[in-house]
């Protein structure tokens, strides 16, 4: 039985075997114990007619795959056939042990109880008509009360099992649908997060590197004729930046730490970044570190390095600064990176670029904070603090 099938259906074929056993036993008993062979034969034929009637309609009714009118028609037919058999031969009433449970499998409790009463009506009527004394009537009444009471309790139990099984199946179906929706949502969210991560990594590394290379090549071209030495210096810087970009691309593909941190400390990576910026722009650029230097979590170091790369890239492209300073401070519970320039500045509230937004998201994911203090014409101070 599958997990989403109704639990009560597991016994469908067992109920059929029970029905067949009771029906065959009843027919044999009627033919063996009856007093009139004609009446017994009629009763046996009527009982045997229950077999094709069940195969034609009853199986689907018992399994609740037939509409309600079909269920009512089947049960009405069983009432007629079993009642007529009971009138012909009282021993035929034994088949009710198999027919009464079918009523509860086919209908809800109230309808099933009415069907049970209808199934027992003909045998009860015959007994009352044939009863010769009050004692027999009382005995029959007690027996009928016990049978009906048992049927009521048994039927209520069966009805509850069927109802709970149906609710369970529906709940499982809903859970499966919800789980499938959640899996699809998680897949989409994971794909989106991965795309955003790659976009941030590409923006903070490859895109900035290509921008730097392009600016260096343009600078080299402008000095090529009248200052070959300066042009050569720009070309050397462009080649070095291209090699670092290639290393970053390989690290990105292999999901390795940033190339700047793979074989050196955070301070060394920041120092190289600042020195290259000064060489490219031809302006004073200094890096300092204070506090007790110590290794940080890999995620924190990546956040600080990427923030420094983004900040220096913005200085290179937009600031027009005459002086740049980068400071890394190790505190007791946090590491603070501060990038300061005396360039043109900007309005942080009006900034809509991907770089600053991606930087905020990256810092927030690391549990840190980012502050940008800038105004047009007043330079820029970017501060990033991450837990140490």
Description:
By secondary structure, the protein is of the alpha+beta class. It folds into two domains: 7-178, no CATH class; 261-388, Histidine kinase-like ATPase, C-terminal domain (Heat Shock Protein 90, 2-Layer Sandwich). Helix content is 70%, strand content 9%. It is built from twelve helices and five strands. It has a five-stranded mixed sheet, covered by helices on one side. A hairpin with a 5-residue loop joins strand 4 (369-374) and strand 5. Helix 1 (12-33) packs antiparallel against helix 2 (37-48), helix 2 packs antiparallel against helix 4 and helix 3 packs antiparallel against helix 4. The protein starts with 11 loop residues before the first helix and ends with a strand.
Secondary-structure topology with pairs:
Elements: H1 12-33, H2 37-48, H3 50-62, H4 68-88, H5 96-106, H6 109-130, H7 134-223, H8 228-253, H9 259-262, H10 266-281, E1 285-290, H11 298-319, E2 324-330, E3 334-341, H12 354-365, E4 369-374, E5 380-387
Parallel strand pairs: 1-2
Antiparallel strand pairs: 2-3, 3-5, 4-5
Helix pairs in contact: 1-2, 2-4, 3-4, 4-5, 4-6, 5-6, 5-7, 6-7, 7-8, 7-11, 10-11, 11-12
Concise summary:
This protein has 388 residues and is an alpha+beta fold. The chain is built from 12 helices and 5 strands.
Please state the average pLDDT score.
Answer: 79
Low-confidence stretches: none
Question: Distance between termini?
Answer: 56 Å
Provide the number of structural domains.
2
Q: Secondary-structure element order, as H and E? A: HHHHHHHHHHEHEEHEE
Shape: rod-shaped
Overall radius of gyration? 44 Å
Oligomer: single chain
Coarse structural class: alpha+beta
How many DSSP H or I helices? 12
- Amount of helix: 55-70%
- Based on DSSP secondary structure assignment, what is the total number of beta strands? 5
Strand order of the largest sheet: 1-2-3-5-4
* Biggest pleated-sheet summary: 5 strands, mixed
- Beta-strand fraction estimate: 5-15%
């Amino acid at each position: 039985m599958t997990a989403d099938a109704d639990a009560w259906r597991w016994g469908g074929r067992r109920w059929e075997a029970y029905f067949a056993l009771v029906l065959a036993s009843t027919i044999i008993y009627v033919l063996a114990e009856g007093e009139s062979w004609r009446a017994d034969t009629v009763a046996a034929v009527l009982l045997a007619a229950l077999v094709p009637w069940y195969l034609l309609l009853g199986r689907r009714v018992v399994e609740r795959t037939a509409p309600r009118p079909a269920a009512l028609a089947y049960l009405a037919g069983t009432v007629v056939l079993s009642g007529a058999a009971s009138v012909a031969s009282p021993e035929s009433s034994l088949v009710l042990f198999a027919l009464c449970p079918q009523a509860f499998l086919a209908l809800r409790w109230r309808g099933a109880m009415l069907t049970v009463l209808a199934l027992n009506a003909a045998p009860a009527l015959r007994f009352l008509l044939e009863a010769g004394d009050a004692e027999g009537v009382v005995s029959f009444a007690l027996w009928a009360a016990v049978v009906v009471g048992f049927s009521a309790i048994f039927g209520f139990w069966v009805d509850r099992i069927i109802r709970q099984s149906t609710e369970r199946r529906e709940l499982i179906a809903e859970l499966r649908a919800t789980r499938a929706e959640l899996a699809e949502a998680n897949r989409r969210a994971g794909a989106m997060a991965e795309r955003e991560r790659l976009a941030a990594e590409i923006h903070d590394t490859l895109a900035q590197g290509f921008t730097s290379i392009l600016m260096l090549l343009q600078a080299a071209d402008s000095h090529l004729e009248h200052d070959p030495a300066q042009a050569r210096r720009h070309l050397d810087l462009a080649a070095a930046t291209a090699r670092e970009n290639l290393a970053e691309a390989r690290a990105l593909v292999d999901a390795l730490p940033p190339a700047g941190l793979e074989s050196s400390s955070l301070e060394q990576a920041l120092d190289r970044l600042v020195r290259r910026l000064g060489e490219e722009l031809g302006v004073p650029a200094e890096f300092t570190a204070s506090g007790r230097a110590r290794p940080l979590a890999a995620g924190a170091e990546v956040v600080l390095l990427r923030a420094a790369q983004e900040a220096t890239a913005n200085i290179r492209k937009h600031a027009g600064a005459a002086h740049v300073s980068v400071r890394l401070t190790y505190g007791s519970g946090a590491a603070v990176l501060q990038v300061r320039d005396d360039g043109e500045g900007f309005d942080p509230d009006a900034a809509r670029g991907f770089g600053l937004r991606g930087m905020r998201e990256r810092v927030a994911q690391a549990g840190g904070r980012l502050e940008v203090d800038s105004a047009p014409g007043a330079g820029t101070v970017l501060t990033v603090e991450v837990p140490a």
